[in-house]
Amino acid sequence: MSSINKTTKKQKGGAVKVPDGLKKNIDIPINQDVIVNELQNEDVDNPDPINNAFQNDTSTAISSHILPESSESQIVLIKSVIENVDVDCPASKDCIEQENNMKVCTEVSQVQVSESDSNIDENYLKAHRILSSKVNDPSNKLPSNRLEFKEIINRGPCRPVLKLYPRTLQSNSQRSFQKSWYDKFSWLEYSTVTDAAYCFSCRCFAGNEKNKGQIDTAFTVKGFKGWYRGIQCLQTHQTSLAHLNSVTALNNFLSAKSIDEVINESVTQQISKLENERLNNRKIMWRLVEVTVCLAKCGKPFRGHDESSHSFQKGLFKEFVELLSRYDMVLQNHFENGPKNASYTSNRIQNDIIYSIHSVLLQELKHNIQQVPIAIISDETSDVGHHEQLSIVVRYFSTALNRPIETFVDLKRMISVTAESIFKSLENVIEQFNLNWNSVIAVCFDGASTMAGNVAGVQAQCKMKNENILYVHCYAHCLNLTLMDAVGASTKNRQQNKMVFDFLGTVQFIYSYIEGSPIRHAIFERIAKENGSKLHTLKSSSQTRWACRSEAVKAIKSNYNVLLEALEEITEKCLISEMRAKGKGILHQMKTFEFIFCLTMMQPILEMILKVSTVLQTENLDLLTAMSIVKSLKSSLSSMRNSPQDEEFHKVFKKAVTMCEENNIIIPKIKNRKVSCKLDDTPLSQHTYQTQNEYIKIEVYFSTLDILMNSMNERFQQETVDIICAVAKLINLEFNIESLNLFQRFFHVVAENLEAEITILKNMKDTPRPIGNSVSTIHEWLDWLSIKGRADIFKQFLQVLRIFVVIPVTSCSCERTFSKLSIIKNKLRSTMSQDRLNSLLFLFVEQKMTANVNIDEVIDQFKLMVPNDRRLVL
After folding, report:
1. How far is residue 779's CA from residue 490's CA, in Å, rounded to a whole number?
2. 388-398/173-175 β-pairing
3. pLDDT higher for 405 or 491?
4. Which contiguous run of DSSP H or E holds residue 83?
5. H-helix segments, 666-720
6. Which residues are the signal sequence here (predicted)?
7. DSSP string, 341-379
8. Which of 392, 471, 603, 660 has its CA 20 to 30 A from that of 365?
9. Judging by DSSP bridges, how do beta strands 173-175 and 374-382 pair with one another?
10. Alpha carbon 392 to chain centroid, angstroms
11. Does pLDDT of 81 surpass 60?
12. Alpha-carbon distance values, 185 to 22, 201, 464, 801 (Å)
């Protein structure tokens, strides 16, 4: 007891000791006799400082504060508060973390959710609540856990110093909170969320027994807003009995630790036990997060049909956790001895873990794309649930890897597919990542009028935000459209190239006929095995699958003889007249010279187009390489068309004739046609072909190649051509006035400085001197500039190369997300919510990021999703 008296003597006549967060001592006198009497009556078996001083339970002492829902007035309020934070003021240094978090909170709050516009992700409101919980704001609910409550006390009152506080009309005048009150009242704190003042001492210790019926809720729960009589009310509250009791409670709470350590070591042991329990809980969460990461990055389903304890269909998540618990003592002890209402394997916990991982990875991505130029790639598709989904991918330059990177960022469900709705979704993503349209250098879409329209399309609306944005029509789509033109997809070309159009129709008919029946397919497989032929699977022809035509034609050519025998046997044994007639029709078409010639001619053309299409779908491709390979394809087609003495045509024709002779197929002759008596302008009336060779060469062979080349010249003539040519000269250290002007406009460089850097590079001996224009050429320059401090010397030159490689070539990254979308949301998971789908798809697409996620940050984010309300202390 002597030690107690000695402690109280030190407190006599002095100010109350407060934490660093309070900044100043509280100049309120303390009744020392009250403290001595309470310390003499303390319970040694339960040395809780709060209970010792006031017989108060912390859980009842903490008042409840519920963060208000977002509203338009609060959005304006928070935005004005953040914009007016006085960063230079020393008093605001303790609020730096609050300020940064509130900026993010403000951006989220600016999103207005309405029932008519479901394109806006509902995660924004959830993020508002999560981010607000990070802030030491008086309006937030105080935690019931002792350790977390003590952390709040140690932080001290929330005292943001703003340049201008929100004003409200009171007593016919605009009034606001005054920062000078901080100096007069050290217990005062201010909420930027509710625009109200609170008493830190009373808010934390309002529920003790001595304050029952005396506490003023204006300073604890509702918040004080009477600015017009602020000094008077604050002074009145400061001298109130309830406030003095709260200050005494705060002072005792702050000194409780040292008293506990002196009086009884059991408190230290209890704190150590709680800390060990917290660390053990984090170990449990670590394993649950690892299981979630494993399933998510592999695209596997989590839940089962029956998740009861004795079921064999619990789902992969529970099965993995139970399997791990057999060999891991931490999980085994948790399930056997832990609380039964906190096993943390429910579907709600699964969703929270998934959302936490997604949130941490988005924060990492957000950090990576700040202050760097980006390109937006987007495309849409329909999922198995008949929902229209918009995939959004961002391409940016990674200084760590010294290479461009394409990253999937979001999947938006579209109720409307108008250009305005799609653009609004893109704009929401820009705002979500704290970006602006000036950082967007290019957009890449397909050629649909909604996306590519020059007047009201998405690309036109993007250029309204930034006129220097480049629009890239996906090169892979362009090549596919070129091929569709050549095979007669349009009515005009169908009449001009009818033979190739009929040929591809027959190819698709063969696939449907053979693969449409297991019996016919079995006959096809048996005959191939009997003949010792390697069976090539028949492929379906499709307008959306870029590689399908080449694969379908290649399979027909490889299995031609086997298909003839199979069709003959099927037509002989088939008992269904309709199927027998179809088989005979296919067999007749396959035995015509026209089919054989088209098969021989189209197979090498489609192979070349497939090779180019495959290269165009690579992620690290740049425009220079893309245009180079497209030009190579045009040169190859031109050489087939304009070979000396039509050698290439004669090779193809000879192969077709040989194939016909091997299969006893008659080559038809040209019939003499009577000359019309009337004059007309049709080509058929003015010219007659003397041989089948001449007819096939002009009407089929030349016609197909001409359509291909003309279509390529038309579709690949985009607005990026001039930039491609300028960069091609630049990497060879050549330039002209036009190219310098282009670089200055689109790449934001100083033309004079760039010209000087090129002149210096020309005279250096160790600069890269590669031959040709390719992605390896640009990468060699990037690698060369990244060493020995050259990046600081040749800043303008490096900036041009970095921005240029960020310009996308294709939208294939979106197509890849669609492939993984069909795995995540299949027929058995078609009712998945959009939030869960978006998170799981991100983790599945960005597998490398998912595998390397910081699990400690995930656990912290998981804890903040339900602030101070987790059953396990984390």
Report:
1. 40
2. unpaired
3. 405
4. helix 72-83
5. 683-686, 692-696, 703-715
6. none
7. T--S-SHHHHHHHHHHHHHHHHHHHHHHTTTS-EEEEEE
8. 471
9. unpaired
10. 7
11. no
12. 10, 12, 52, 58
pLDDT for residue 803 = 93
The tokens for 630 are 């497209």
| 470-473 β-sheet, strand order | 403-414, 388-398, 374-382, 440-445, 470-473
Residue in this structure with the two tokens 């993503």, named with its chain if needed: 429
Report DSSP letters for 428-493, one per residue. Answer: HHHHHTT--GGGEEEEEE-S-HHHH-TTTSHHHHHHHH-TTPEEEE-HHHHHHHHHHHHTT-SHHH
Burial pattern 362-382, b for ≥16 Cβ within 10 A else e, equals beebeebbeeebbbbbbbbbe
Reported as a single tens digit per residue, the pLDDT across 464-477 is 999 999 999 998 88
Element (H, E) at 612: helix 593-616
How distant is the alpha carbon of residue 781 from its chain centre?
A: 30
- CA 337/CA 322 separation, integer angstroms: 15
Bridge partners, 380 (sequence order): 390
Sorted by sequence, the CB contacts under 8 Å of residue 755 that are 6+ apart come out as 735, 740
Per-residue b or e along 666-684, where b marks 16 or more CB atoms closer than 10 Å to that residue's CB: eeeeeeeeeeeeeeeeeee
Pairing outcome for strands 470-473 and 440-445: parallel
* Distance from C-alpha of 334 to C-alpha of 285, rounded to nearest angstrom: 11
Q: What is the pLDDT of residue 97?
A: 43
SS (H, E, C) 714-773: HHCCCCCHHHHHHHHHHCCCCCCHHHHHHHHHHCCCCHHHHHHHHHHHHCCCCCCCCCCC
Counting beta carbons within 10 angstroms of the beta carbon of residue 85, is it exposed (0 to 12), middle (13 to 18) or buried (19 or more)? buried
Q: Which two tokens stand for residue 592?
A: 């015509």
- In order, the DSSP letters of 286-326 are HHHHHHHHHHHHTT-----S--STT-S---HHHHHHHHHHT
Residue 840: partners with Cβ closer than 8 Å, 6 or more residues away: 296, 299, 354, 824, 832
Going by C-alpha positions, the residue among 294, 696, 766, 249 that lies closest to residue 497 is 696
Is pLDDT at 344 greater than 70 in this prediction?
Answer: yes
C-alpha 178/C-alpha 185 separation (Å) is 12
pTM of the model: 0.66
Distant-in-sequence, close-in-space partners of 132: CB < 8 Å, separation ≥ 6: 67, 105, 140, 193
How far is 181 from 20, CA to CA, in rounded Å? 19
Cα–Cα distance list, 370 to 204, 226, 379, 432, 767 (Å): 39, 42, 24, 12, 31
pLDDT-derived band at 679 (thresholds 50, 70, 90) equals: low
Question: CA triplet 719, 721, 723: central angle to 5 degrees?
Answer: 95
- The strand pair at 403-414 and 388-398 is best described as antiparallel
3-state secondary structure of 33: helix
Residues in the chain: 874
Please state, in angstroms and rounded to a whole number, the distance separating the CA atoms of residues 339 and 163.
49
Residue (of 749, 714, 733, 716) closest to 468 by Cα position: 749
In contact, 486 and 704? CB cutoff 8 Å: yes
> What is the C-alpha separation between 362 and 409, in angstroms, rounded?
8
pLDDT band at 456 (very low <50, low <70, confident <90, very high): confident
Return the DSSP state at 383.
-
- H-run or E-run covering 388: strand 388-398
In whole angstroms, give the CA distance from residue 855 to residue 849. Answer: 12
390: enclosing H helix or E strand: strand 388-398
Q: What interhelical angle do 577-590 and 560-573 show, nearest 10?
A: 150
pLDDT digits (tens, 9 = 90+) for 706-746: 888 988 888 887 778 888 888 888 888 888 888 898 898 88
